[in-house]
Design goal:
single chain; 124 residues; alpha/beta; four-stranded mixed β-sheet; 40% helix; globular
Length: 124
């Protein structure tokens, strides 16, 4: 399942915590990630951050080619963006980008799982 890392400013404003990870070569959102994103969507559509913008940054682990990982990171960020839009966040408020494997630090299964994520930032 998808790993969603939430900006501390969002956590403080909305009280959201996430602990799940994307499976290898996947951008599917389910389980705890879906629950977390529903809370984010509520916070940005009707809650304390209504009207604020989000930046979604997709990441991949270092396995696979650089171009594949860049595309996979974008697919993950876009998947999260689509989920948020489908749950009430205005499309114009959601921006996405990919870092691919650029920030990957894992060297084993646990580390690779941490690398497979989308960071959700409050856009300034």
């Amino acid at each position: 399942t998808g790993s969603i890392h939430i900006d501390e400013r969002i956590v403080k404003a909305c009280g959201i915590v996430a602990t799940s990870h994307f499976t290898f070569d996947s951008a599917t959102i389910e389980g705890p990630a879906a629950t977390t994103l529903q809370a984010v969507a509520s916070c940005f559509s009707t809650g304390p951050l209504k009207g604020k913008d989000l930046l979604l940054v997709g990441h991949a682990d270092a396995r696979g080619g650089a171009m594949h990982n860049l595309g996979l990171g974008q697919e993950r960020a876009s998947s999260v963006g689509t989920f948020l839009r489908n749950n009430g966040v205005e499309e114009s408020r959601v921006k996405t980008r990919s870092r691919g494997e650029a920030d990957a630090a894992g060297s084993d299964a646990e580390g690779w799982a941490s690398d497979r994520r989308v960071d959700v930032f409050l856009a300034d």
